[in-house]
């Protein structure tokens, strides 16, 4: 039932052949792992080279562009939006406060 040593399981009869087969599978697996590690290292090097050439701070376009000149414009536009929002609220507040009085006046 269980596949133990004495009941015709994994090591029954051809234990040496079974061990050799397992060793071969392990060797193939380790060879594949080594090959994948080499490919992975190669890809990591290519990615690093690409980032060195085109990445941030490279000066060759890509995402390495200097956007500092736009920050003051962005800040100015944000300030204009805040000012417009405050102005809008200051105009809306009296109108909303006057509505109940206007409705009372209509009812009379």
From TrEMBL:
Coiled coil feature spans: 19-53
SUPFAM superfamilies, alphabetized: Intermediate filament protein, coiled coil region (SSF64593)
Keywords: Coiled coil, Intermediate filament
This protein's GO CC annotations: intermediate filament
Keyword Coiled coil: yes
UniProt xrefs under Pfam families: Filament
GO molecular function: structural molecule activity
Domain IF rod: 15-108
PROSITE patterns: IF_ROD_2 (PS51842)
Top-level taxonomic group: Eukaryota
GO biological process, one term: intermediate filament organization
Keyword RNA-binding assigned: no
InterPro entries: IF_rod_dom, Keratin_I
Name of this protein: Keratin, type I cytoskeletal 24-like
Organism of derivation: Trichechus manatus latirostris
Gene that encodes the chain: LOC101357562
